[in-house]
Amino acid sequence: VLLQLKMQPGLKWTEDFNMDFKITTDAQDIGVDRAAMQKMLDEMPEPTTDEERAQIDVIKKFLSEDYSKQPYLALEMEGKRANNVAELKDDGFVMATTLQTIRMSFGGFMMPTTEINSATDKRSGASLDGLLLMVGAELKLLVTKDGKITAVEGIDALNSKAEQEYSKDPILQQQIKEVLAEQKEQLSIQNMAPYPDYAVKAGDQWVIELPMQLGQGETGVQELPVTMTLVKRADGKSYIHGEGRTVVDTPVESTAQPGVVVMNKVPVELNIEIRVDEATGLAEEMTMIMTSHLETASDDGNAQSFDSQMTLKVSNTLDR
């Protein structure tokens, strides 16, 4: 299935990409060795920087509290990322992305930053992407027709919000600054297709192609077949209605065997509604909703589930 949407400069459209997810980790014995921690504190040199002082404060706080009744750690993280708004220009387009909230809660105690990283992701520092979303900000990319990013707005605002949010944690503040600086540098030099799934061509009109291909699986390229029918709704208008369902092979890292990639079967559903003006034969509005559900679990107590829904709405853009 291939849909071609012809868009004139000046058109605005919204893409609501809602990804709700929740990650829970069953309680695990954290094996606190107080003696070793106290020895490490005693042997640390006198701090000379804010970062060193913050590290010592974290250890002292840990040693000062009684965790005998809660010698276990449980992690729960949930969140949402949503809303892209784009506007076509003569020489490209502007895309604004609003980052929404991620909430993390720990049973037992709040771990030092490095431990948070290792709890949420085996790679040190990788969880900062999640922590950034707690701050919340709007990022704006200016993209030319050939997919070149010419400006990134919003990174600096995100930086200042991070400074306020984590004013009592200079270590985390610094890490966030470094991550943001790296992201800004990468975004400003790379070429990208305006959307990973859509091909955009330059010319008198913009054409966004939406191939219903969902990636390379174990059995080759996976496509989502869509059945299209013409129906008349209660409002008296005609609609082209399309439905499609398939199962996609998605590679994920095994929670039981870190570093081992396994293929998960992810059900995907697609619904398309195109409202047609019978007088002109032109589409007045198109709504496309794609939903998927991914769930992983293992014997080590880790469970992850990701429910995502992408909604694309476009008005007055389809040819006859």
Structure commentary:
The structure is a single chain. With 320 residues, the chain is α+β, with helices and mostly antiparallel strands. It has two domains: 197 residues, no CATH class; 109 residues, no CATH class. Helices cover 22% and strands 49% of the residues. Strands 2, 3, 4, 5, 6, 7, 12, 13, 14, 15 and 16 form an eleven-stranded antiparallel beta sheet that branches. It is elongated.
Give the distance, in angstroms, between the N- and C-terminal Cα atoms: 17 Å
**Radius of gyration, Cα only, in angstroms?**
24 Å
As residue ranges, the low-confidence spans are 1-8, 15-19, 25-31, 67-82, 99-137, 189-221
Shape: elongated
Main sheet, how many strands, which sense, barrel?
11 strands, antiparallel
Average per-residue pLDDT, rounded, comes to 57
Query: What is the H/E string?
Result: EEHHEEEHHEEHHEEEEEEEEE
Please indicate the count of domains.
2
Helical residues, percent: 10-25%
Q: Tally the helices.
A: 6
Number of strands: 16
State which percent range the strand residues make up.
over 45%
**In terms of structural class, how would the helical and strand content be classed?**
alpha+beta
